[in-house]
Amino acid sequence: MGNTRANLAGAIHAITELKGVTVEAQSRVFLTEPQEKREQEWFANQVLRIACHADISPEGLLTSLLNIESSMGRCRNGNAPEDRFGPRIIDIDLLLFGTCAMQTSLLTLPHPRMQQRAFVLVPLLDVAPELTFPGGKTLVQALNALTYRVEEDRIWQ
């Protein structure tokens, strides 16, 4: 889907332009093998730690992130498998929002599948190594529960 590193950089730039949002840290970019739909290019994944002004809600932030995706050319088709697992120019997920736990039709926090995904947890280690998930599991414990390997900037799972 084009220059994936440039796509990530463009998304990060757009996030820095959001009013009331500050990018505090960004992980390295990792190339990760596709999940589910394996016959496609590897994905580039990166995690940001951001701070938001107190008047920004989780849903408001997600809406802004989805608008960035749309402005970059992403067309979402709901939860269609070709959209969830297929090639796309950018995919911005909201993983956590402080200690907020919620489930609405738009958003579930913490992200419901993040502890199952090395392509999320490995970059998350760069920006929040001290992270503890609701329930008390640490980031390192979550990673230790997965079967994966990392070589330089590549993650296999």
From TrEMBL:
One of its GO terms (biological process) is folic acid biosynthetic process. One of its GO terms (molecular function) is 2-amino-4-hydroxy-6-hydroxymethyldihydropteridine diphosphokinase activity. InterPro entries: Hppk, Hppk_sf. Keywords: ATP-binding, Folate biosynthesis, Kinase, Nucleotide-binding, Transferase. It holds the Pfam family HPPK. It is an enzyme of class 2 (transferase). Transmembrane segments: none annotated. Pathway: Cofactor biosynthesis; tetrahydrofolate biosynthesis; 2-amino-4-hydroxy-6-hydroxymethyl-7,8-dihydropteridine diphosphate from 7,8-dihydroneopterin triphosphate: step 4/4. Its EC number is 2.7.6.3. Residues 84-95 form the 7,8-dihydro-6-hydroxymethylpterin-pyrophosphokinase domain. Belongs to the HPPK family. NCBIfam families: folK (TIGR01498). Catalyzes the transfer of pyrophosphate from adenosine triphosphate (ATP) to 6-hydroxymethyl-7,8-dihydropterin, an enzymatic step in folate biosynthesis pathway. This is 2-amino-4-hydroxy-6-hydroxymethyldihydropteridine pyrophosphokinase. The gene is folK.
